[in-house]
Specification:
This protein is mostly helical and 418 residues long. It has a domain at 12-114 and 272-413. It has helices at 12-33, 47-67, 70-75, 77-94, 115-130, 140-158, 163-167, 173-178, 184-202, 204-221, 229-252, 256-265, 277-289, 300-303, 315-347, 352-376, 394-412; strands at residues 96-98, 101-107, 110-112. The chain has a three-stranded antiparallel β-sheet with strand order 1-2-3, with helices on one face. Strand 1 and strand 2 (101-107) form a beta hairpin. The chain is globular and about 75 Å long. Residues 1-5 have low confidence and may be disordered.
């Protein structure tokens, strides 16, 4: 009897979408960073040339990630996670400060941002923890354990300070919800955000009045079920107390540039040349694109360098101006297709570890994509979150590449043939 052989079948649709996004990202970085001093496509002194190097090295990373036995990622998930936490702690001793954040290591002129890689290691650690035979996400002690896994890297990143990167850890609530976390946590988080923003927009007094009215309506509608009036009173008191604490949190916890960005989005400040300059110019660039765009390297806002750092967090404004609504929709649909495909494949995983990791990947990519485009179009405040596979930067590209291709490997290991 012949010995059985095991083959790994990779999902080429995910790989193809990855290649498409990286390629489209590069051509837009090329346009956004092209200068009169450029010497062609392979000018490695230019930003687009450096990104080409990062893309080339990503191929090496992909080969390495796919070459490792899939069980390695589950077996050593905790060890990898701890090493990544040490890399974040080390920043406070050996880190390089750029734009007020100590978030990088400098290796001979090459800056590496460890927080971009910790997303993948945290996803591995969470998947390992949740897939443990005794872990039940409906139990409070297990919920606290998962929270600690997420909070440790988030706190270390906030202290750099880099609140934008720390925000991404909110994405992990979705895989936890899939694994049994009660939906009330999602509703409470959403309600807290709405309450916070409403208080900033209308004031604590009006929000308090609104909460009382809403509670009264709900109590009246449920009166036949004899609702517990004490529970309603406690909830109303808690909401009102939170509303009146928003002002203190906003003025004492948030930094000035964070307050400015919130105020601009809420329409409280008009600052077209100050803190709101990037968003204002980005909106102009996107609106200039129309349906079909001005053409590659032909964007007036892009070529005039009106959007600062357009090749990084604001790269989508280049897409909007030069490729128009059609090009923007293609990018959006590619991201939607990739995220949907990951969720679809996550549901087909034979192991809970693979499923939790897959949902974590989808959630991280979605939150990056959703917040970045919302930021560029002026819907959300500027928080410094890159567009996956698109924005310039080796650390971001490599981090997202590792995040995705670990799942490609885990998914491929599902298929066995004799």
């Amino acid at each position: 009897m012949a010995a059985s052989k095991t083959y790994v079948r990779f999902d080429w649709l995910m790989i193809f979408i990855y290649i498409a996004l990286v390629f489209m990202g590069w051509i837009n970085i090329y346009s956004a960073s092209l200068s009169d001093a450029a010497k062609g496509f392979f000018d490695f002194d230019q930003i687009y040339g450096k990104q080409m190097i990062w893309i080339g090295l990503s191929i090496v990373i992909i080969i390495f990630v796919l070459a490792i036995e899939s069980k390695f990622y589950e077996r050593f998930a905790s060890v990898i996670y701890i090493i990544s936490l040490v890399s974040l702690v080390g920043l406070f001793i050996f880190g390089k400060t750029i734009a007020g954040s100590t978030s990088w290591y400098d290796f001979g002129g090459v800056s590496i941002q460890p927080s971009e890689f910790v997303k993948a290691t945290t996803a591995l650690a969470l998947a390992k923890y949740v897939s443990d035979i005794q872990t039940n996400m409906k139990d409070l002690k297990n919920q606290i354990g998962a929270l600690i896994i997420l909070a440790l890297p988030a706190i270390l990143i906030i202290l750099q300070p880099d609140p934008g990167s720390a925000l991404i850890y909110a994405a992990f609530v979705f895989p936890l919800y899939r694994e049994g976390l009660h939906g009330v946590y999602l509703l409470l988080a959403l309600f807290a955000v709405m309450l916070f923003v409403s208080t900033l927009a209308f004031g604590a007094v009006w929000v308090a009045i609104g909460v009382v009215i809403l509670a009264g309506v709900l109590f009246f509608r449920n009166r036949k079920k004899r609702p517990n009036i004490l529970k309603y009173v406690l909830i109303v008191i808690g909401c009102i107390a939170f509303a009146f604490s928003v002002s203190y949190i906003f003025n004492n916890v948030f930094k000035q540039h964070h307050r400015d960005r919130f105020n601009i989005v809420l329409g409280k400040e008009v600052d077209a040349r100050g803190i709101g300059y990037n968003t204002n110019q980005s909106e102009i660039a996107i609106s200039n694109g129309g349906w079909l765009g001005k053409g590659w390297t032909q964007g007036t806002q892009t070529k005039g360098n009106f959007v600062p750092e357009q090749h990084t967090d604001y790269i989508f404004s280049t897409v909007g101006e030069e490729w128009g609504f059609l090009g923007s929709m293609i990018v959006v649909l590619l991201f939607v297709a990739l995220i949907t495909r990951i969720i679809f494949k996550a549901e087909k995983q034979k192991s809970q570890f693979g499923r939790v990791y897959g949902y974590s990947v989808a959630a991280i990519l979605f939150l990056h994509f959703f917040v970045n485009i919302g930021m560029v179009t002026g819907i959300f405040p500027t928080v410094g979150i890159p567009l996956p596979f698109f924005s310039y930067g080796g650390s971001a590209l490599w981090g997202f590449t590792i995040l995705l291709f670990i799942f490609v490997k885990l998914d491929g290991a599902n298929y066995h043939y004799a």
